[in-house]
Amino acid sequence: xxxxxxxxxxxxxxxxxxxxxxxxxxxxxxxxxxxxxxxxxxxxxxxxxxxxxxxxxxxxxxxxxxxxxxxxxxxxxxxxxxxxxxxxxxxxxxxxxxxxxxxxxxxxxxxxxxxxxxxxxxxxxxxxxxxxxxxxxxxxxxxxxxxxxxxxxxxxxxxxxxxxxxxxxxxxxxxxxxxxxxxxxxxxxxxxxxxxxxxxxxxxxxxxxxxxxxxxxxxxxxxxxxxxxxxxxxxxxxxxxxxxxxxxxxxxxxxxxxxxxxxxxxxxxxxxxxxxxxxxxxxxxxxxxxxxxxxxxxxxxxxxxxxxxxxxxxxxx
Length: 317
Hints:
The chain is built from 18 helices and two strands. It has helices spanning 2-13, 19-39, 43-47, 55-61, 70-77, 84-104, 108-125, 133-145, 155-159, 169-194, 198-201, 203-210, 227-241, 243-246, 253-271, 274-292, 294-304, 309-316, and strands at 16-17, 167-168. α16 packs across α17. The longest helix is centred in the middle third of the chain and has 26 residues, at 169-194. The chain is globular, with a radius of gyration of 22 Å.
């Protein structure tokens, strides 16, 4: 019993290098900034008062009224003469600057908190357009808020403001929480798919391949090769449902992480959900790559210690 308790303590709290969390911070920051640039041309249509879904509809049907949103802030500031869309752009500006500060590792905790808060306000303003990517982006910011993610590749580390050693127990705890969260996500997704017949018969994958509203390519020729959608369906069920087991078996974890990444690449390319696939790949790499590819990670650590912090981040991007 004592050995088990000791092993459990080491599993969750044994000291480890915080470099994976620094990688996670930079990757999530660059991801968020890239997402903003891609959406910027339609930003007010997504979040503005007279956008695709007008505020009075969004607020009544989709927003959580008790929690912060741009709509709630605009209503509070209305008596002072502030314009609705001006408030949208003000919150957006804070969000973008916070992401930039977080990415560079300047006042990392404060910048991460501001990015998390403003991202939540944006999501709670326009939940009608959510499809998963904003959820995992928000979860990522939440994890970073409590992570020792500025010990590497940051202006804070260069200025001596981090207050922690690069190797610490908090890093392992946060990584383990991320790993367990992914296990729950994939296991739940796999079990949910198994409860119906569509995934067992291959029809779920065929619906995507054959429906031009989803598929980015003309894959209707697969109607003559029904075994391919069926095999892909079974492969998805296996990879997702068995993820919590085989990601922690040394002999199988490399195979499993490669297949999970292939799954998300496939979702991105075939369904056009590029950003969703990318954020899931980022989270998986941050959570598992350090223990699956230790030699490559060690070379990355050596590289990160040689260059100036700005040069590191620019090269990583």
